[in-house]
Every structure is written in C-alpha cells, then in structure tokens.
Amino acid sequence: MYLMEDIRELQRQKWLKAQEEKKAAASSSTSASATSEEAQTNSSPYSAAPVPAAPYVANAMGSSSSQAASSLAPAPTPSAPVAASAAAATPKALASPKASQGEPQPIRRVHILPVGPGADSCGTPRLQLLSTELRRFRTEQARVRTGQFIKSGGHEFIVVKAEPDDGLLVQDTDYFVDGDFVLRFNKVQFICLKDFQAPAGGDEDPTLLFSEYISPYFRSIAESEQGIGNVVTVGESVTIFDKDFKVIAAEPAEREIGIIDASTMVFVDWDSTPEFEKIHIVPFQDTLPGAYDFDVFNDYLKPYLTRNKHIYLSVNDQFTYQGVGFKVVCCEPNGPARIGRNTTIYCEGQLHPSLRNLLPPELLEQLSHLPPGLQMLLLNTEAIAGGYEERLIEVQEMLSRRRGLSAETISQVNSFRWGEDGHTSSPTEQEQCMICLSEFATGEEVRGLPCNHVFHKPCVDEWLSRCTDCPICKANVDRAIRQY
Q: pLDDT (tens digit, 9 = 90+) per residue, 246-255?
C-alpha cells in the first residue's frame, strides 16, 4: 500500500510543474505581443475595460451554468465564491506513486465515528462493533490513516483523526468513539487564508483556487483507491500545496465533521477579514525572562505571529509564547482583524499583572457594565509577586455568578428607605454607597447588611448575586442570614 503523503507529494510536484509551464507560457505571450502592441499604439491610444468573468456553478459533469450558488455563499458578484463539484474541473488521474520506504509510527490516539445513523440504531456499543476489525488491524500490522473507511459489524465507520495521521495500532493506542455520526456534506464553503509573509501580488481569481487547489487535492485522495475519504471539520484549516484553506460552513449545518464526495458542492473564496493598519501588543512584565538579554519582537512576538500567521486578533486579546504573556492593548481597526503585509506592529512598554489586565475579553466586557464602585471592589487586589492566581479565579467566579446568593436569600436582607423612619445614618456612620460611590439621598431604598454596612439596594443586590461576603468587611452574609 502507498502512503497518502506519496500521493499528495506527486500531486504537488505535478502542480509545481504546471505552475512553471504557466509562467513560461505567460512570458512567451508577453514577448510575442510586445511588437503587436507597439504597432497599435498610434491607431488606438485607449484600451477597453476588462469585462469581469461571471461566477459559475459546475455540476458533476463539469458543465457550467450562470445561475447563482446556494444561500451558503454571498450573492454573485465579480468576486463571489466559486461553487463546483469536488469531482469536476480536475486534471487526469495521477500516475501510481512509488511505495514509501518510511517506517510506520505507532498511533497514540485515534477518533473513529460511524458514517450515518445505522451503527447507533442497532443498540450495540460502537467500540464493540469495531473491536473485530481493530483487532485485525493490530494483528496484521495494517496501516490506519486519517479519513480511512472501516467496515465492521455490518456498519461503516471513518477515522476522523489519527495521531500521527498514518501509522499502526498498538497496545497503548487510545480509542475515542464519542461524537455525532458523520454525514456526507451536501455543501462546503472554504476560504483561502491570506499569508502576510507571502510575496505581494493581486488575489487570484477564485475559480483558480478551485481548479488548481481544492479539486486536485480532494480528487487525489478520492482516487487513491485506498479506502480513504475526504473528511473535513468546520472551523479547521487544511494546507493545500502552498496555501491554507479553512472550512467556514457546511450543510447539513448541524454537523461539524463530514465527508466531501463527488456530489458535494464546494464553494471557495478569499478570506475577507480586514487587515490591521496598526496594532500594539505589550508583554506582561512578570513573564519576561530576567536571567538573560532578549529582544521582545525578534525573540518572542515575531516567532509567535509567524507560527500563527492566520490568527484573528481584537483589543484585549491575550496569548502566550514560550512562557511570555502578551496582550493587545490597542489596534486600528478594533478587530477582529489579521496581521497583514502593511501592518505596523508596536511592542513598546510592559504591563503589570493587575487583575484588570489579566481578565479575558469576555469578562472585561461584563465588568464594563457594572457600577464604577463595584468594578473597584472586584479588582481591589492587585496581582503582584505571582500571588494573583487565587484572586483572579475568585473574580472570574463572581463575574460568572457562580458564588453568589440566591434571590430568595437576598430578599431576606433588611431593607429600608434612607431618611425615613429615623434612618438618617448607619451605625457605621456611612453617608455613601461604597459600590456606586454616590451619597445616600432621602427616600432611596437601601439594604443594611448584618454587619451594619449600608448600600443602595440595586447595588448590593448585584454584588450579593455574585459574592456572599460584605463588599467592605468581607463578613459572610449568607451565614448570618441563614444562621449555619
């Protein structure tokens, strides 16, 4: 049997040869037309504007149609995605590759799912259905690959993922069979991710993305005659020759993992995510090395961005590279956006690890909607000398409402109107709500906690729904109310 790497390498070599032939043909055409263009200069100083090619939909027979693709893709425009069958518009079948000389590696983990609902409807556990065939693979030392179809117990399964992608099942292999059964996708939409390290140049016609990348790649797998399927996962990326493609949508939409076959309609277009003009990414001071000299950009930031060249970033996003933490403090536009060839990257300065700086963006968004005093109370412990982990967990739990009192318990806390019935001051001589930082006004509804601290009712109700302790003295309100 041949390895999928051999098949794909042969396809890549064929693709590279075709690219060289295209460049040579273009060079010959340019030189041949130079004389003709010079002869026409005096007769016609103008050139006609090019007419954009209409997007097309190719069926499984390869014929074209001017009708629009499905609602999975945007309305047709000169740059709209190309839709085509994965088996259409492809070159001739590949020649037989040479057998690989590499030694197969043991598979550490393998994820296998049934194709269709049949295996689950019989009532037998999935692993039990697979056991006979998996035992045969181990005994015969047969290779197992990502995308491989397995027929066992009268049902069809597919290897969704193997680590490594090609190897042998061994005694220590971990088997995973959980997850929804796999369907054959009716439609799949890819985007070609832009690489800021690639040479500058105009975007290719989306039709070329299909005919020179998507179709040859998936057809090489389908025609390998090794029982391998084109299995893809929504949200994941695949490298095809010199470009990276991401699956952004598929139908049926309720499935994240599916199979591309000859009847699947494939859409492909360039990634339209905007490019940053400027971005300022700053390291956390306490994560920087102290034993040796370093360059923040060249030693940490540049390698991270190079390895994650398709990452989308926004203000307040955080990431770590080789133990050094970074945070996006500002950018234009705010994002999500990507690093591009023309992006100016700043990394001057250092961040001290305050709780505000360490909170993830989604919790910072929650925090911004709380009263200023409540924000201060939540963040009143500065994270210094590495002792912030416990406090950070507490704040995250408070913002997630995992540690507060129930509405029924909060309603049992004493409430009254300030300035009425003799309530003109608190036993602690408070004149100000320490949550919203506003002074009490006559007639305002307030709550007096068992510890005698007083707060506006809406302010302290919000606090107690997140935390069981008094905001000032940290006395446990829940214990005092329920007396346990």
A: 999 999 988 8
Nearest to 271 by CA among 317, 176, 340: 340
State the pLDDT at residue 229.
87
Sequence-ordered list of residues with C-beta below 8 angstroms from that of 268, at least 6 positions apart, any chain:
81, 82, 189, 190, 191, 192, 206, 209, 210, 213, 214, 245
- Tell me if domain 278-351 and domain 404-482 are identical in fold: no
Is residue 483 scored above 50 in pLDDT? yes
Q: For the chain, give every domain's residue range.
A: 1-17+54-271, 278-351, 404-482
Residue-level pLDDT at 312: 92
CATH number of 1-17+54-271: 3.10.330.10
pLDDT band at 151 (very low <50, low <70, confident <90, very high): very high
Q: Which residues contact 69 (CB under 8 A, 6 or more apart)?
A: 55, 57, 76, 80, 81, 83, 265, 267
In this prediction, residue 295 carries a pLDDT of 94
pLDDT for 62 beyond 50: no
Determine the Cα–Cα distance for residues 279 and 282; give it in Å rounded to an integer. 10
Class of domain 404-482: alpha beta
pLDDT digits (tens, 9 = 90+) for 312-369: 999 888 899 999 999 999 999 988 999 988 899 999 999 876 666 666 777 777 677 6
> What CA–CA distance (Å, rounded) separates 256 from 254?
7
For tokens 């007096």, the residue is 448
Distance from C-alpha of 175 to C-alpha of 144, rounded to nearest angstrom: 13
Q: What is the CATH number of domain 278-351?
A: 3.10.330.10
Cα gap 308→312, rounded to integer Å: 9
